[in-house]
Input
Amino acid sequence: MRIALVGFMGAGKTSVGRRLAKALRTPFVDLDELVEEFEGRTIPSLFTESEEVFRQAERRALATLMTQDCVLATGGGTPLRSMDTLLEWGIVVFLDAPLSVLSERVGSGIDRPVWSEAAERYALRQPIYSRAHHRIDATQTVAAQVRMIRELVCA
Output
């Protein structure tokens, strides 16, 4: 089974993804972690060069997963350039929450390279995220979100 979780920073893609993968007995992949593993450096350090350097690394890492069954937690910006790829690869689930909730979760955003532009990026990404096969209310508990996703994809 191939499930990609998309959504803005702080939506819970990694938390929900880990639990969902465990429940479905399938591998879990965090795309940000995979990028760091392949590149041998952190995402903030890639961003110090440029966002484009990071996005290229992200696309290379994503390409390695295209034949793999897994639950994939994407980066918040992954769908900007790769939504069509994700939609063809598997079931895409949008973890949706208001920016006010995400802001509380992220806090200062000091470890998020683009958090200072959160409002603009949130508005830009919403129409792209909404192309997902399914939308889940990410203000609910992780357990509730996992249950809803399982009901959607296993029905």
Notes: The radius of gyration is 15 Å. The chain has one domain: 2-29+70-153. The domain at 2-29+70-153 is CATH 3.40.50.300 (Rossmann fold).
